[in-house]
Design goal:
By secondary structure, this protein is of the alpha+beta class. Helix content is 23%, strand content 32%. The protein has helices at 43-46, 53-63, 84-93, 120-132, 143-159, 166-185, 219-222, 242-251, 273-279; strands at 2-10, 13-22, 25-30, 72-79, 97-103, 137-141, 188-192, 198-202, 205-209, 233-234, 287-290, 296-300, 323-328, 333-337, 344-353, 359-363, 371-378, 381-390, 398-403, 406-416. The strands form 5 sheets. A 6-stranded antiparallel barrel has the order 15-18-17-16-19-20. The protein has a 5-stranded parallel beta sheet with strand order 6-5-4-7-10, with helices on both faces. Helix 3 crosses helix 8 and helix 5 (143-159) packs antiparallel against helix 6 (166-185). The longest helix is centred in the middle third of the chain and has 20 residues, at 166-185.
């Protein structure tokens, strides 16, 4: 027999749950504020018991420590963010679905944590969506693991003079590794998410592919996902657009039907990344802003506040528009120049090709258009020779290679130019 405790507090109120488990069945429990007794229920059944918010939180915290369920070929684990997309993915998953939400680290000094996809409010919304449909829900508290795997590398990358993409790192590796491990513990045959993406066979291999809705396509952020996992992953929204998704949620009477979009870089909790980085230890140290010839044009208070392609906030005046071209972490210098000096035709990245490729369409930033390129595979990554110039390319961002709609490679940009 295993005994576990869970607690939850808010505004001075506290709830405590104790359960004792033999196998996958609860044999004793102390739990007030729930809709039904827990004794005799399996862990899977207990995860579907609603209750007062704090009591349900406390039960979730207890269950997460021991949760497991016998395998079922019909069961689908659904990654729930508390938003409309994952709620509709849950509807598609059917009556044997189980929701799972990752509670991740948020900056405690951020001004707006409620909109983050991993906040306590998002966890509650996800759980209530599941329970309103009579489905179980499990919360995994991964705050410390997320901080080490995503937040700390984000800070270190800026300190090196890079412009990292934490959402690619999270979605392409950390998040799916944790979710797939949970799906196995939950006895689920596959994992569904509310991402707008698809999986397609391309050149004999199952690969990630763009969503039907180009405006919502999230394949760039998911590009680091190992194709070997795709047989176990399902993107039920990949063939539809956001309007259809909201309509489905409204038709089902879900409260999240009109919930606002979650933030990118959720751990910033609505704050500017520069303020966050300063709180995390990056120095506000004065340094020079120079032109390409080394002539000083002004000063700044931290090279890490600037990224290639940035035009606003440079603090220098010139007859022609000036852009941040690059930074030098060692000398705390920012180099600025005209837009044409941002032009890049050669890029190297640390990553991998999922299928052999000599040519590809390449996205070098999330919002940038794809550029045709010649691809050369190298040890630990690949080199790109772009057919035309790209602008605002930054080390630390993700290079994603497409053949048609299929993602055929991805890597972190390590070198720009020759």
């Amino acid at each position: 027999m295993i005994e576990v405790f869970g607690d939850s507090s808010r505004d001075g109120d506290l709830a405590l749950v104790r359960i004792a488990v033999e196998g996958d069945t609860i044999v004793s429990a102390d739990a007030d504020g729930l809709a039904r007794p827990l004794v005799g229920l399996t862990l899977l059944e207990a995860a579907g018991v609603p209750g007062e918010t704090l009591a349900a939180d406390a039960l979730a915290n207890a269950l997460a420590q021991v949760f497991r369920a016998a395998p079922s070929p019909a069961r689908v684990a659904v990654a729930m963010s508390g938003g409309v997309d994952s709620a509709v993915a849950l509807l598609h998953a059917g009556p044997d679905a189980i929701g799972v939400t990752l509670r991740l680290w948020l900056d405690p000094d951020g001004p707006d944590s409620a909109r983050a996809c991993c906040s306590p409010e998002a966890v509650i919304a996800a759980r209530e969506t599941c329970h309103s449909l009579g489905l179980p829900h499990v919360t995994l508290d991964l705050r410390e693991e997320f901080r080490r795997a995503v937040v700390e590398p984000f800070v270190r990358a800026y300190a090196r003079g890079e412009t990292p993409n934490p959402c690619s790192r999270c979605n392409g590796s950390f998040r799916f590794a944790e979710l797939l491990a949970f799906a196995e513990r939950a006895g689920a045959a596959r994992l569904a998410t509310g991402h707008y993406a698809r999986a397609r066979v391309h050149k004999g291999r199952l690969l990630l592919a763009r969503a039907a809705d180009e405006a919502k396509d999230q394949s760039y952020m998911l590009a680091g996902l190992d194709p070997r996992f795709l047989e176990r992953i399902w993107f039920p929204l990949g063939e539809q657009d956001k309007t259809e998704t909201r309509a489905e949620a409204a038709a089902a009477g879900l409260e999240v039907a009109e919930r606002a979009e979650s933030q990118e870089a959720c751990f910033l909790a609505g704050d500017d990344y520069r303020s966050f980085l300063e709180r995390r230890g990056l120095s506000a140290r004065t340094g020079p802003i120079v032109d390409e010839d080394g002539t000083e044009l002004g000063t700044h208070d931290g090279f890490w506040r600037f990224t290639p392609g940035q035009r606003r906030g440079l603090g220098v005046s010139a007859a022609e528009p000036r852009f941040a071209l690059r930074t030098n972490a060692a000398t705390n210098t920012v180099v600025v120049g005209p837009r044409e000096s941002l032009a890049v035709t050669r890029v190297r990245a640390a990553g991998r090709l999922y299928v052999p490729a000599g040519r590809a369409d390449v996205k070098l930033r999330y919002r940038s258009p794809a550029v045709p390129a010649t691809v050369t595979e190298e040890d630990g990554g690949f080199a790109l020779e772009l057919d035309g110039a790209a602008y605002g390319v930054a080390a630390g961002q993700t290079a994603v290679l497409y053949d048609g709609d299929a993602v055929i490679g991805a890597g972190r940009i390590t070198r720009i130019g020759a």
